[in-house]
Design brief:
138 residues, mainly alpha, globular
């Protein structure tokens, strides 16, 4: 138990408070869209206990995302989408046709772009494997 004599004098309380005050939580449209979509997917997949393992997320991270706070990286969203066998667009609640239309307006073909990305990823993995093999051998 702390006695009254051990408590700081009231005039020093402000002096002793933390210098950096907590910042308000940043909310964004994408965070809210992701939270709503995760809730929807959770319901469609039999509840949180059934759905959470499919996402590959830690429970605390999942709860943070469900509240629409935090700042998941694009890589994190790609990993979740991949585990759920969908694209990031679908994870956020968009249809692939939405992405196709948006890219087409910029003169980019969705299928060509995804094919190029897939080839680039495969080449990157191949180089990484070769590099690991060379390190093990040499």
């Amino acid at each position: 138990m702390v006695s009254a004599a051990q408590l700081p004098h009231p005039e020093f309380i402000d002096f002793m408070s933390p210098v950096r005050k907590p910042q308000p939580v940043d909310h964004s449209i994408l965070n809210e869209m992701l939270a709503l979509r995760l809730q929807q997917l959770e319901i469609e997949n039999g509840g949180m206990e059934a759905f959470l393992p499919k996402t590959g997320l830690a429970r605390g991270t999942y709860y943070t995302m469900l509240r629409g706070i935090g700042n998941p990286t694009l890589k994190t969203m790609e990993r979740i989408a991949s585990k759920l066998n969908m694209t990031v667009f679908e994870l956020l609640g968009f249809e692939i046709d939405d992405a196709r239309r948006a890219l087409k307006k910029r003169g980019v073909d969705y299928d060509e772009l995804t094919s190029a990305i897939r080839k680039k990823d495969e080449a990157t993995r191949r180089v990484a494997r070769q590099t690991r093999s060379q390190k093990l051998l040499g």
